[in-house]
Amino acid sequence: MLRALFRAVRLAERPAFRAVFLPFRAVFRTALLDARPPFRAAFLDARLLFRAALLDARLLFRAALLEARLLFRAALLDARLLFRAALFDARLLFRAAFLDARLLFRAVRRPFLAVLRAERLAVLADFRADLRANLLPLLLPEDSLSDESPKSNEREDPGLDELLSEGSGSIQPEPDQPISI
Predict the structure, then answer these.
(1) CA–CA distance from 66 to each of 61, 62, 144, 177 (Å)?
(2) Model confidence pLDDT, tens digit, residues 147-181
(3) Burial of 141 (0-12, 13-18, 19+ CB in 10 A)
(4) Is 118 within the bounds of a domain?
(5) Considering the domain boundaries, does residue 116 fall inside one?
(6) How many domains does the chain have?
(7) Phi and psi torsions of 44, nearest 5°
(8) What pTM was estimated for this model as a whole?
(9) Whole domain around residue 123: which residue ranges?
(10) What's the pLDDT tens digit per position in 115-135?
(11) Residue 163 lies inside a defined structural domain of this protein
């Protein structure tokens, strides 16, 4: 309710309030128009000063940046040279250590390989002797001195048929037979 009353009073008093400020509005506008040229001149002067200061700051920044780049390049070059020297030293040390380890490994491996070879030769000799002793009677039938052809199919030993199988023909043709492909 109080709000509605205040609004009604304000609406009723608005034309009188405007009438009081109307002459001041014209004075303010003329003062604003009079202050505009000096403000613009001051702004142009300040803009020129700001541009000069900005240009100086840019030049100083560029010089500092160039100096920093040169220092960084020099430091990077020094670091690269130091890294290369350290890498070269490390490569030489690694090669020497690798050669030492290789020689040591070979020295340790030689007796082991010698024992391994001796064992292999002993086992191989025993294997060959056992093979000759056990397989030779199977390969040579007891009636090998008989008149029968070695290609006959009339063998009496069934174990020999499993070990040796005869083919349907010979690998080499007979000298008087033509070669057929």
Answers:
(1) 8, 6, 104, 98
(2) 555 555 555 555 555 555 555 555 565 667 666 66
(3) middle
(4) yes
(5) yes
(6) 1
(7) -65, -40
(8) 0.32
(9) 7-137
(10) 888 888 888 888 888 877 877
(11) no
